[in-house]
Amino acid sequence: MLALLAAGACARSGAGDSGDDAGAPQVPAVVGAQTAVVSSQPFVETVNAIGLVAPRAGHVASLAAPAPTRVAKIFVTLGQHVSAGQELVQFEQATFDAALRSADAAVDAAQRAYDRAQRLAAQGIAPRKDVDQAAADLAQARLNQVAARRDQELSTLRAPIAGVVTEMNAVLGASADMSRPLVEVMDPAALDVILQLSPDDAARVRPQQEVQLSAGQSAGGESLGTGRVADVAAEVDSATRTVAVRVVTAKTLRPLRAGETLMGAIVVARVPNALAIPVDALVPEGEGYHVFVVDSGSVAHVRDVKVGARTEQFVEIRDGLKPGERVVTHGAFGVSDSARIVTGKP
């Protein structure tokens, strides 16, 4: 528990002080400091990272025209819930129908040519190579027929999964480019959180570790529930120099939305009985840290400590402190060794 300490820099303790203290050295004082008692408690170490909500692979579909054409009909709108197989957009049918009829005719002709070549070869009239060529032509014609039939089927875009229309670029009567997606359908129940971690932090993350999720870009945002680490990317993103960590959420306090920014606190360690103090108590010194321990006479003494796990608010002390000791927290950077800490107003 933190206690507000005020220090009064008074040369004498009051008008009734004896003159015997006149020659005693004055003890420096600190004003506005706070202290905390070192306690033994369960300690949870987390690694914090910002991430985005993204659709899970296999649960989002991006659809485009199978060939250059024009949009003839639009059956759905942006944000509409659709079922698997439901019609979304239809293109002009004449071109696809004609292409399929032509492919069917080409297969019939190639089949007749193959049958004739086989008959002539069997009679010794035509060489065997004519049969091989006719067989190759027939195979190519059948391949073209399959492609034409597929294009005709795709001339009406249908939802491959049940979900929500999250993108609609189709314009009635406009040209449709096969390289530009026209419709996107996403399953809103299959969303993951993709956190971006530094390589050092990612090295401490393992599948199945608990993740505490909160809204926004800070740990103090609205709590959204918990998730579990599903997997950790094996490579560093060349653009962001971060490692992607995918988090699966079983249930959240409110529905998540694709593209939403979240903060994830990944639990990387649990210490059941650790000495912990507020992070404010640590004062960096070289490559280590020290704290100021306040004795029973309200005098602060510098002491080196060895730190372990930490969170945004607390740090684990592995060596240098004992339970029940009191350390300066807020204001520790303004304290010097042997500074006097006096409670109350000077």
Biggest sheet strand line-up: 3-12-15-14-13-16
Total count of strands: 21
Query: Could you give a short account of the major beta sheet?
Result: 6 strands, antiparallel, barrel
Percentage of residues in helical conformation:
10-25%
Radius of gyration: 37 Å
Mean pLDDT: 86
Outline type: elongated
**Cα end-to-end separation:** 23 Å
Q: Which band does the percent of strand residues land in?
A: 35-45%
Model description:
- By secondary structure, the protein is of the alpha+beta class.
- It is 17% helix and 40% strand.
- The chain contains 3 helices and 21 strands.
- The chain has helices spanning 93-122, 128-153, 199-202, and strands at 3-5, 33-37, 39-55, 60-63, 69-74, 81-82, 87-91, 156-158, 163-168, 175-176, 183-186, 191-197, 210-215, 223-232, 243-252, 261-278, 283-285, 288-294, 300-310, 314-319, 326-328.
- The strands form 3 sheets. Strands 3-12-15-14-13-16 form a 6-stranded antiparallel beta barrel.
- Strand 13 and strand 14 (223-232) form a beta hairpin.
- The longest helix has 30 residues, at 93-122.
- Residues 1-24 have low confidence and may be disordered.
